[in-house]
Design goal:
By secondary structure, this protein is α+β, with helices and mostly antiparallel strands. The chain contains 10 helices and 11 strands. The chain folds into 2 domains: about 1-40 and about 230-400, Multidrug efflux transporter AcrB transmembrane fold (Up-down Bundle), CATH 1.20.1640.10; about 45-230, Gyrase A, domain 2 (2-Layer Sandwich), CATH 3.30.1360.200. The chain is about 55% helix and about 15% strand. The chain has a 4-stranded antiparallel β-sheet with strand order 2-3-1-11. Strands 5-4-8-9 form a 4-stranded antiparallel β-sheet, with helices on one face. The two termini are about 10 Å apart. The relative contact order is 0.13.
């Protein structure tokens, strides 16, 4: 019996040390490694809406192509963790976290990018569909330009165009605006050309992105832009960290004050819960936003609520005259149905928010749903396991240290049957 108590104590101590050590060393790195949304690090939020024109009507195929082209353009801007997603039938939301120049980014993602080569008579000989590649360059004179390379068919069209227009101008237009209109001195047969006139290399780079990604299949209008400055984003982040820290600290203190050692064990389980939640969010490559932080804090409260239900039933069973071991077992069994039912309804609500919500609402639903599932595991499995070890070790024989007492009999009790 003495060896069993010793083994239980060693296992309990090992669990506590392992959880506290992992929490202390990994909670901060994990929290900072999760990618942050627009409201936490600043950036630009753009809402685009497709519009029917005589040339092209908006349909599902066109919208899918617009999203893919937007993704390609935004990715080539070199931004960190951008978000591009559909909203309804005609709208697209683009979030650009940490962007330094929102105006230029908006110009790049919103342009139709219809490239045309026209002769002096206004006839279109080539379009962007004939283009194979485009990249920014700086020539020997330090002039910024965009180098174009045509497909084999496009190269032949360009050769025919320049051959027929020697001594005349060829206009290169983007979305109906003339970018440049050089004079053709001689036929160009190599299937290559350059666009001059870019004031900076970055401007040439942005133009090359547009040309490489291709033209949008339908007209797209920017109907909303919202910029969150890095200072405001940092302020939101600091307040979120403060709220999370205060919330966790208040919960830990509350549990110890009201439930003594049982509350302490619940606090250790709560540390494990936080680490597991952050790890899963990292593995899912989730984007943490302010609503997502709110979901985490809410799920922490629900995790504690489960422990409160268990401990209250535990205290009731002990008052009826049962031993600590039997009271604890009965407390978990009685509380399980209530915990399960309440958590299932919360998971259903989170699922509805995820499937029918958009943007940050989905982030809230993910953190809340994951948090509820993990809270059930830590409250019902981990807390119960450590409490069994604590009672089996028989270190503390006074029922008050477990937060339980009997009306007429307190003090030393029989811990095992």
């Amino acid at each position: 019996m003495k060896q069993l108590r010793k083994d239980s104590f060693i296992k309990l101590l090992a669990c506590i040390i392992a959880i506290v050590a992992v929490f202390a060393f990994f909670v901060s790195p994990l929290a900072h490694s999760i990618r942050q949304g627009l409201d936490l690090q600043g950036g630009t939020h753009v809402v685009l809406e497709a519009e029917d024109t005589p040339e092209a009507a908006v349909n599902e195929d066109a919208m899918e192509r617009v999203v893919k082209i937007m993704e390609k353009r935004v990715n080539e801007l070199g931004l960190t963790e951008p978000i591009i997603q559909r909203q309804g039938e005609r709208r697209i939301i683009v979030e650009l976290p940490g962007i330094k120049d929102p105006d230029k980014a908006i110009q790049v993602i919103g342009k139709t990018a219809m490239l045309e080569f026209k002769d002096e008579d206004g006839n279109t000989a080539l379009t962007g569909t004939d283009l194979q590649n485009a990249k920014e360059e700086t020539d020997q004179q330090g002039q910024n330009l965009v180098s174009l390379e045509f497909s084999s068919e496009g190269g032949q069209k360009f050769a025919d165009l320049t051959t027929k227009n020697v001594g005349r101008k060829i206009a290169i237009l983007l979305d109906g605006e003339v970018l440049t209109a050089p004079n053709v001195k001689e036929p160009i047969l190599g299937g290559k050309a350059v666009i001059t006139g870019s004031r900076t290399l970055e401007e040439a780079h942005n133009l090359a992105i547009l040309l490489r990604s291709g033209s949008l299949p339908v007209k797209v209008n920017i109907i909303e832009t919202r910029t969150v400055g890095p200072t405001l984003g940092q302020d939101s982040k600091d307040k979120s960290v403060f709220a999370f820290t205060v919330g966790i600290a208040a919960v830990l203190i509350f549990m110890v004050l009201f439930y003594r050692l049982s509350g302490f064990i619940a606090d250790i389980s709560l540390m494990a819960y936080v680490i597991m939640l952050l790890f899963i969010l990292k593995m899912l490559d989730a984007t943490l936003t302010l609503p997502g932080v709110a979901g985490i804090i809410l799920s922490v409260g629900m995790a504690v609520d489960a422990n409160v239900l268990i401990f209250e039933h535990f205290k009731e069973e002990y008052r009826l005259g049962k031993t600590l071991r039997l009271s604890m077992d009965a407390g978990f069994k009685r509380a399980f149905t209530t915990i399960f039912d309440s958590n299932i309804t919360t998971i259903i609500a989170a699922a509805v928010l995820f499937f029918f919500g958009t943007g940050t609402i989905k982030g809230f639903a993910i953190t809340l749903g994951l948090g509820v599932v993990l809270s059930m595991f830590t409250a019902i499995t981990l807390t119960q396991y450590m409490l069994k070890l604590l009672i089996a070790s028989n270190i503390f024989q006074n029922s008050k240290v477990y937060g339980a007492s009997r009306p007429a009999e307190e003090g030393k009790v029989k811990t095992n049957e």
